[in-house]
Amino acid sequence: MARRKKRIDHDNRDRWLISYADFVTLLFAFFVVMYSISSVNDAKYKTFSDSLNTAFSNRPTPAHTPGVAPNKQEQMLKSLVDKRTARLGEQQRKIQDRMNNLAGSLKLMMSPLINQHLVNINPTKRGVEIDISESLLFRTGDAVLQPGAINVLRQVSGVLINEELPIEVEGHTDDIPIMTARFPSNWELSSARASSVVRMMISNGVPEKRLVVVGLASNQPIVPNDSPENRARNRRVSITILSPNMERVAVGGE
User: Fold this and answer.
1) Which residues contact 47 (CB under 8 A, 6 or more apart)?
2) What is the pLDDT of residue 91?
3) Domain residue spans in the chain?
4) Domain 92-251 classified CATH 3.30.1330.60?
5) Tens digits of residue pLDDT in 207-239
6) What pLDDT sits at residue 64?
7) Model pTM?
8) Which residues have C-beta within 8 Å of that of residue 168, sequence separation ≥ 6?
9) At CB < 8 A and 24+ separation, what contacts does 89-96 make?
10) Is the pLDDT of residue 118 over 60?
């Protein structure tokens, strides 16, 4: 009896292609289904985007897209934006009134010196600025307060004690260099003069944590240094009562 030859099985190395093809087919079908059921309402998306832009830029809320009825979420978002805008506007008005009242009080108190052009008071974007002439405060080339300056700074301090705002005191010189043993340059002179004013204000009750001293030498003149009169105007000490930071106020009111 003849012996049957043993059958030799050959491995099919390409069987994985069948599974891979099935996987790719299923993945393709999945994305087709997801794409077919997805839809974007362009009008609603634009409304939502405009509302977010308004909320973060403090601009007026844009008109609603014609032909699209706002849903409850859009109405709620618009209401929140309107409330926030109104609250910030009210805070800004209160701050402006506060700074205007402060400037008015200082002008009334110092009107004789303002009329003599020794003091100038101006509301600025940074706050209320009081410019005091060097001739009222110091002798030429010196940083020791004159007796007449003490009463002026006492009056200013009496008003500022009631405030809680930060104060910057800046010393300014003209463009003529100074070179002495005590003041090698205008930087030292302007800083020393601002420091003398700050020390006097502290002694009159203004908390030192609210005060900052800045020496600017001749770098911020209010008029060109082209005449003796203009140089005299530039030699001054500026006391700036800083306006509250609006962003900080807004965060604190949340």
Assistant:
1) 64, 65, 68, 70, 74
2) 77
3) 92-251
4) yes
5) 999 999 999 999 999 999 999 999 999 999 999
6) 53
7) 0.64
8) 211, 212, 214, 238, 239, 240, 242
9) 91/246, 91/249, 91/250, 91/253, 92/246, 95/243, 95/244, 95/246, 95/249
10) yes
